Please model this.
Amino acid sequence: MFGLLPKCFPNLSISNTSTVNFAKLPLTVRWKQTSEMTTEKQRINLDEPRYDQGTFSGRLKHFFITTNPLNVLATNKQLEEAKHIVEKYKSGDDSANLTEDQIWAAKQLYDSAYHPDTKEKMFILGRMSAQVPCNMTITGCMLTFYKSPKEVIFWQWFNQTFNAIVNYTNRSGESPISNSQLGMSYALATGGAVGTALGINKLVSRMPPLVGRFVPFTAVAAANCINIPFMRSREIMQGIPVFDSKGRRLGESSNAAKSAIAQVVISRVCMATPGMIFPPILMSWLEEKQFMKARPWLNAPIQVLVVGFFLVFATPFCCALFPQKSSMAVSSLEKDLQEKIKALPDPVDRVYFNKGL
Model:
């Protein structure tokens, strides 16, 4: 049989009857050989999101899915099933015979409800998928009821209560937050927001009405700068876990925690900006129209809907500003951790950490 091969394929070289130089076979024959060797299904890496997190577009796709408000409607049974699929697949069990899209759908639902570090199911109001429905209601009401001190105090308190839940739920690392720390952070953020709002309201009382509409945004921005760092102050004191590119834990770093918290503060302020800047301008214009003067009760519902429209896009866009798996150079870490990493058999130049949301 092998004696006939040189006649059929003149360029084929045979060193012996068991070794064939496949590089010189015709393309169709080589394709068949290659396809038979690669029939084994390539496994999906569920330790990483589906889309490249090194690019803004990849992060944006990921967060459009993760922050999808419809994820809030998933039942506990659906979440447990998604967790079961992810954990079985990671362990190497492919007995479910699911398609790639089905596996990714389970992974994405899992990511929307379970903490990336602790793997615990997050409180529903603290999940990023709850941001749009909750924030559109709270922000719309803050923009509608911002004139009297009672309204300012109530809605700023309500907003900071919600923010405290979100910040606690999405904290980075595995360190628990004590009740005293939680209470201190909450009191400072609420006091800062209420004090800022009342103080600025008094300052702008003689200015054009449009200026007063931006007071809630100023108060929210100030409160974010207080709430998030204090809520996560334990991370600054004790550090957050840092890893190499292969997921090997290298230690804990306070400098990494500071970087993570700064990124979260920036993204949260940016997240609030479109929904608290553009609706006041729109409502100032609408309120001059006759149909709004005849129906003042439409003010709050319209503001809530307009804020919701902006949040649908602002939430994933601002979550995607920085990679959730952030990184920093080893040279920016604490000296003792730098020395520890340099002493390893295979030292690295960069470390990675979960910045939180």
Summary: The beta strands are 14-16, 19-20, 240-243, 249-253, 325-329, 350-354.
